[in-house]
């Protein structure tokens, strides 16, 4: 699970945090800066052959926790949702998983 995902609230001056998590996004709405880190994580998931992954952004599910730029959604961050979906397709191909559309129905 790629959980507790949210935009960094630490300023760039906090050298320790940024040394440990370089390229961590401060906003998801700026896809240009968010995608390098997102792609790195996605590639790690696909390369490791993780059989199931789930992305959860704590800034997306409760109105009180939402901050501008912290919500992952097809409406607000389409470029990021698209690369997550594409990585899922790559992972399925790597693992040899068939899509449910091609699975045989129940025996009659």
How far is the first residue's CA from the last residue's CA?
37 Å
- Total count of strands: 2
Strand content: 5-15%
Count of the domains: 1
Q: What composes the largest sheet?
A: 2 strands, parallel
Mean of pLDDT = 75
**Sheet with the most strands: spatial strand order:** 1-2
Structural class estimated from helices and strands: mainly alpha
**Net shape:** globular
Show unreliable segments: none
Total helix count?
3
Series of H and E elements: EHHEH
Helix content: 25-40%
Rg of Cα set: 16 Å
What does this molecule look like?
The structure is a single chain. This protein has 108 residues and is mostly helical. The chain has a two-stranded parallel sheet. It has one domain (2-102). 39% of the residues lie in helices and 6% in strands. The termini are far apart.
Task: Name its key features.
108 residues, mainly alpha, two-stranded parallel sheet, globular
Task: List the SSEs and their pairings.
Blueprint: E1 2-5, H1 15-20, H2 31-48, E2 55-57, H3 78-95
Brief description of this entry?
The protein is 39% helix and 6% strand.
């Amino acid at each position: 699970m790629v959980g507790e995902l949210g935009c960094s609230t630490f300023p760039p001056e906090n050298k320790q945090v940024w040394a440990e998590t370089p390229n961590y996004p401060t906003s998801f709405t700026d896809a240009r800066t968010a995608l390098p880190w997102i792609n790195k994580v996605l590639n790690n998931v696909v390369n490791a052959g993780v059989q199931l992954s789930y992305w959860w952004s704590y800034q997306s599910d409760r109105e009180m926790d939402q901050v501008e730029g912290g919500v992952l959604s097809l409406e607000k961050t389409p470029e990021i949702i698209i690369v997550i979906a594409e990585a899922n397709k790559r992972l399925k191909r790597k693992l040899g998983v068939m899509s449910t559309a091609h699975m045989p129905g129940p025996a009659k």
